Each structure stands twice: as C-alpha cells, then as structure tokens.
UniProtKB/TrEMBL annotation:
Membrane topology qualifier: Multi-pass membrane protein
Principal location: membrane
Signal peptide residues on this chain, from the entry's feature table: 1-28
SUPFAM superfamilies documented for this protein: Porins
Compartment(s): Cell outer membrane
GO molecular function: siderophore uptake transmembrane transporter activity
Protein name per UniProt: TonB-dependent receptor
C-alpha cells in the first residue's frame, strides 16, 4: 500500500541521507543507559524555524492530504524562538524505553536517575515540577512522595512519534505553572486514506535485547483507516534485571517491568478533526536505586478527547482529559533482604480541559487566546504493620488526605510579522492555583506523631495563589544564512502538594517524602510562596543557505528566581539518618545562568557520507540567601559524534565527556562525582520492510558515577559510614540488538 511504501522510503532516506543539523544527545546526561546516538533526521533542530504561513494559507480549506498531516496534538508556534521539534525514529529505542531519554538530543537537557522508565528530566538546571511536561496534550502529575510516576513514564518511548521543547522563555499558550520551559511528547497523528483510495491498513512489529541487565521487550502497532475514520493501537512490554556498572558490580534495585497500551480513534469532516485516545498502563515492579522505597505496582487509565478545526477566521482547538492512578510502594527483593518492610499506597487523578483559538487579525498578525482548567486529587496513606506499633501502627498513617490542587488559567498572545526578517511574540497569562488538604494522623497517638498532626490539623490549610506570567520574544533573520533570537519572561510556579503539606518531622516519615535521590528527610511548609522566575535568553546561529553543509548555534540565558523553593536544616524531631540530614522546604532567592553551543559539519563522501556534530552545555546555579550551590546542577558536558551512511547502512560513533561535579549543595550533603568519558556505537541496516539495529553502549566498559544519580539506598544501609561507596554508578558495557518489521 501507499503508506507502506512511504514508510519504507522514509526509513531508507533516514539511513542514506546524513542531514544531521543538530546533535542528537547532550553529552553526559543523567541516564540509566548511555545516550542515544545521532541517527534521527531532525527537521527544525539547529535551523531557522520556518516562517509563519500567510493568512491565505491559514484560512483556506486544507486539502485531504493536508488534513492527513494535521497534528492531533499542539506543537510550538512555527516562529517561536528557542523552540525545537523533531521526529522520533525506531532506532532511538535501542538503549532505553524511557520516554525521557528521547530528549537526549536537546542541548542543556539532563536526567535525574529514577527507575528504568521513570527518569526526571532537567532543562538548563530546572527539573521535575519546574518544567511543564505534556503527554499527548495532557498535563499529568506525579502521584507519589518519591515522584516515581512522573508524566513521561505514562507513555512508552515506542509510542512517541514527535517531541518538542521550548527552553526557558516559553509562550504563555504553551506553559504555565512552570519555570524552566515546556517539553512535550506526542504519539502519531491519525492516518486517513486519501480520496478514492478506499480503506488502508498496516502496522509495525519490533523487538530488542540488551545484554546489560538482560533487558528485552517488544512493541506492536497496527492501524486501519478510511477517508474519514481512523483507528490505531500501540502496545509494548519491556523488562530488565539489575544492571552492572563498568566494574562488573551489580547496581541493586535497578530492575523493572512495564506494559503500556494506547488505543486511538479519530474522525474528520471538512476542516474539522476530532478524536479520543484511551491509555492504560501496568508496572508490576520498578526498582529505585536511590530511594528507600521501590514501586510494587502502578496502574493507570486515561481518556483524552481532542478537537481541531480550521475556519475562515483562524483555528480552534479543544481538549478534555482524565487520568486515574493507583500506585503502591514497598521494598523489592534487594531492599527486603535488609529486613525493610513498609507498604505505602497512593491514589491520584488529573482532570482537565484546554481550549485555544487563533484569530488572524491581519495578514501579518495573529491573536491567540485560551482558557485551561486542571484539577488534581491525591490520597497518600501508609497501612499499619502488624506488631509494629507504636512506630508503624496500629493506625493508618495519612501523609496526604484528600489533597486538592486546582488551577484555572486564561491567556492571550499576539504574534506579528513586522517584515520578512522580524517576528515578535508577546503574551500574558493569569493562573489561579488553589490547594488544600484534609486532616491527617500518624501511626499512633505517640508524641512523635501527635504533636505534628495536631499542629497541622489546627491550621487553615487552604492556599490561593494568583500568578501572572508575561513573555516577550523576537526573531531576526536578516539573511538565509544567519538568525538571532531574543526573549524575556516572568514565569511562576506554585508549590506541589508534598512541598506544602508533608507534615511530620519524624525522621522515618521524612525519608519517605523525597524525590531527590539523596536519602535525606524532608518536611513540607504550608506557608511556601509561589516561585517567580525572571528570565532573559538570546541565541545566534549561522549556517549554509541550504542547511546541509554546516551549522553553528550558541544560546545564553540568565534567570533570577524570587522565592525559589529550596531547603533549610530541620532540627525538630529525632536525629537524622546516619550521615544524612533533615530538611524543611523554604523560600529563598536563586540565580541560574548558562550557555549551550551546538555545531555540525558535513565532511564529504568517502565510501559513504560523513558528518561530525557536537554540543556543549554548561549551567551554574546558586542560592543567593544561603550562598550555596543549587542542588542537582549538571556539570559542564560535551558530546562529539561522527556519523557515516552508505546506502541503507548507517553508523555512528559518539564520545561523551562530563566534567567533575565539585559545585555541590552542602546543605543537602550532595555527593561530588568524578569526570568521565564514554564511547557509544550504533549501526543500522534497512532493507525492504525490515530494519536491523545493533549497538554497543559504553564500548570500553567505563566505570563512572552519575552526577545526578544520588546515593544507593541498598549500599548506604550496608555501609552508612562510607558514603563514597554509595554513589550511584552508571551502566557498564551493553550489547544491544533490535529488529523492526513494517507490514
């Protein structure tokens, strides 16, 4: 069929044409597997974003072929500075099924170690809740005191078709209740048959094996469509045992198993397209090396209805969604062997809607307005252990009882083409965030719980924040060979429920509220203020006119954050864990600054096409009140990749280098890590409807410490007096193979 031929042609083209205008992975990113090598074809990365279509193009009725290509999910405005969007190719899944790893192509991106499919992304020093993370248009919340189920963990990497990022200065239509930027993943847009083609159907099967950790998995994708109706299904399963580091030591609590399903149906009529997605997930176990707890079950179900229409006056988009989560934690085999046992249960739900309209005021000016609502509910309780009273019984411990966080938003932004060279985008957003929670109780009425619970229950716990975001950006493209981008923004974020409402000063309870991987104990603060970030960002890029030969881009940024949510030492309650500390969330002022540099050059033809590309990233962060370094800041890192393609065969060798992490947060007792370098290799061969992928991660089996890896809870418990041994190490060498069949 035509679609099969198009897919085959796309794969053959990706193997035969080495047009890599931007590097595929920021060097030294925090990861459970080495970074994906640059084997993707990037459409806009590192090149000037295409100019906005004329009003005639925006208001005219799209052809069936254009409707076929219309994205179901929102993407960055086409002229938005600091935005990048790229397609995902099958070979990106060879090293990891974690969807967060798909962003390894973005300069300034790093990852805090989590579970095998639950890394926490960081962008230019801002991570986790400080980033707006969107999955198929849905804003999802981590329903766990350890953030074991972040938004990107709810879609397998094999189901992702496109990723997009806007760093720092985010349009108000794309970001709210966040500071560092917006990252989004989207599954494939629905396919429709062209006029007169009748019904079409097809699909894809893929499987992989990774030697380190004995990881394996499979994915199935199938679709069927007519001219007006489309249905598709993607299902995947993956599992792995504990991996080994470069010295052959087992990294405990790094095993996982996950199964994901996504069923999508869509229809179209004229210029209108509508659809609904059903997603469900089961993770029966997932180890977390740098947490006291492991995930012992995670089940979710989501419904996501969406609409997009084109009209004479512009466009209209709408979305209504709900996701429910049932999450359990305890200790898997490794930590259970230490005698640990502590069941914890969580129930959460995200419900929301979002509507956006674009009004073409003139040929050169478009006004976009929108309204959003996001409702989050959370219950977090810890069942008692038989015979463990009064420390862990006889009552149920309520960590968060009937937690509520509701956000109502409205925004407007104006995009103007002043000339063929100048484009500006200005916008204002208003967010009203209301949070509250019910009364709590400890395991028993003993003083270590009763005093804190009584004090918390006597509070008026309802908090209302009124947050204002303002963004202004400009793009100047005086010629086809260079462009400049400028931007400034005021961005805000309100505290999450755990930051405000985790209530117990007891050491044990505090260690269960920790999504930082440092094994410290944390307690919340109901009086936290929203964070307010004042950011400035600029970039300059030069390239050949055809965007095929060479490219160079440098971006710099500076952000001051008023009321940054950091920590101070908590002296209330019992003693801290050995060698660790107790902390309380507080508002401080902070500053972050950094630079990203990316470049590429075609080297010519010699038994194939050759290209070299590279990226360098550096960020510095400081708490201005405590005069300390900020926590979880990735050290300077660089990556250089050499790519070779010959017909249907492609090869890439990648060198990653990471500087030593010496600027650490002394309040949190953050560990230092040593500098390291890794070499990775990928090879792919495509023929007809089959693709074979081969790779070696960490070719020389280098032993290295993860700069954002934290401490191993298992190793710490066995030797708390020697924390150097507890630093989490990255994976050693892994031989990976995969095969994909299109039908």
């Amino acid at each position: 069929m035509r679609l099969r031929k198009n897919i085959r042609a796309l794969w053959a083209t990706s193997a035969a044409v080495a047009v890599v205008v931007g590097p595929s992975g920021a060097l030294g990113q925090q990861q459970s597997a080495p970074a994906q090598l640059p084997e993707i074809t990037v459409e806009t990365t590192g090149t000037p974003t295409p100019k906005k279509a004329s009003s005639a193009q925006l208001t005219s009725s799209p052809s069936p072929a254009q409707m076929e290509a219309m994205p179901t999910h929102s993407s960055p405005p086409p002229t938005q500075p600091f935005a990048r969007e790229q397609s995902v190719m099958p070979q990106q899944f060879l090293s990891s099924n974690d969807s967060a790893r798909l962003f390894q192509s973005v300069p300034g991106m790093s990852f805090q170690t989590g579970g095998g499919v639950s890394a926490l992304p960081y962008l230019n020093g801002f991570g986790d809740d400080r980033l707006k993370v969107v999955v198929n248009g849905m804003t999802l919340t981590s329903s766990c005191g350890n953030h074991m189920n972040p938004a990107l963990s709810y879609i397998d990497a094999t189901a992702v078709d496109k990723i997009s990022v806007v760093a720092g200065v985010t349009p108000v239509s794309m970001g709210g209740d966040s500071l560092g930027g917006t990252i989004a993943v989207d599954s494939a847009a629905p396919l429709f048959a062209t006029s007169g083609e009748g019904a079409i159907a097809g699909g894809r099967l893929s499987a992989f094996y990774r030697s380190n950790g004995n990881g394996f998995g499979a994915t199935a994708h199938a679709y069927a469509a007519t001219e007006d109706v489309s249905i598709a299904y993607t299902g995947s399963t993956t599992r792995a045992s504990n991996y080994e580091d470069g010295s052959g030591r087992e990294v405990y609590s790094s095993l996982y198993k996950a199964t994901n399903h996504l069923l999508s149906a869509a229809g179209r009529s004229g210029n209108n397209q509508f659809g609904v997605d059903f997603g469900w997930q089961s993770i029966p176990y997932q180890g977390f090396v740098n947490q006291y707890m492991d995930m012992t079950d995670n089940k979710s179900f989501s419904v996501n209805a969406h609409y997009k229409g084109q009209f004479d006056w512009g466009f209209l988009e709408g979305r209504v969604y709900r996701q429910s989560i049932r999450h359990s934690m305890n200790m898997l085999e490794d930590k259970a062997s230490l005698g640990w046992d502590m069941p914890m249960e969580t129930r959460g739900s995200d419900t929301g809607y979002a509507f956006k309209a674009g009004l073409q005021l003139t040929e050169a000016t478009q006004l976009r307005v929108g309204h959003e609502y996001h409702r989050y509910r959370l219950d977090d309780w810890w069942p008692p252990l038989a015979g463990a009273a009064p420390m862990m019984g006889p009552n149920t411990y309520w960590n968060i009882n009937d937690g509520k966080r509701d956000r109502t938003s409205a925004f407007g932004e104006l995009e103007t083409d002043w000339s063929s060279a100048w484009t500006t985008l200005v916008g204002v957003r208003l967010d009203r965030v209301v949070s509250d929670t019910g009364p709590v109780q400890g395991y028993s009425p003993m003083m270590m719980y009763a005093a804190d619970a009584n004090a918390f229950n006597s509070l008026d716990r309802k908090r209302t924040d009124t947050n204002v975001d303002v963004t202004a950006t400009a793009r100047y493209e005086p010629a086809a060979t260079h462009a400049f981008e400028f931007g400034a923004a005021r961005k805000t974020r309100s505290p999450n429920l755990y930051e405000r409402y985790a209530w117990s000063n007891a050491t044990m309870a505090g260690t269960m509220v920790n999504w930082f991987g440092d094994l410290n104990a944390y307690v919340g603060n109901p009086d936290l203020k929203p964070e307010i970030a004042h950011s400035a960002r600029a970039s300059a890029e030069w390239h050949d006119a055809a965007h095929r030969d060479w490219h160079f881009k440098v971006s710099g940024y500076l952000t001051y954050v008023d009321d940054y949510i950091n920590v101070e030492t908590n002296t209330i309650g019992g003693a801290p864990p050995p060698g660790r500390t107790k902390l309380r969330f507080v508002n401080h002022d902070a500053r972050l600054a950094g630079v990203d540099i990316e470049a590429s050059k075609a080297l010519g033809y010699a038994w194939g096409d050759w290209r070299v590309s590279g990226v360098f990233s550096y960020v510095a962060g400081r708490d201005l009140d405590a005069d300390t370094y900020l926590y979880n800041i990735m050290p300077a890192n660089v990556r250089v990749a050499l790519t070779h393609t010959l017909g249907n065969w492609s090869n890439t060798v990648e060198l990653q280098g990471v500087a030593a992490k010496n600027n650490v947060d002394v309040v949190r007792l953050e560990p230092r890590t040593s500098a390291y370098a890794l070499v990775n290799w990928r090879s792919s061969y495509a023929m007809d409807n089959v693709r074979f992928d081969f790779g070696i991660d960490n070719v020389f089996d280098t032993d290295y410490e993860l700069p954002l890896g934290g401490l191993s809870a298992y190793v710490y418990n066995r030797d708390a007096a020697n924390l150097d041994h507890a630093r989490v190490h990255g994976p050693g060498r892994s031989f990976n193979v995969g095969m994909t069949v299109d039908f």
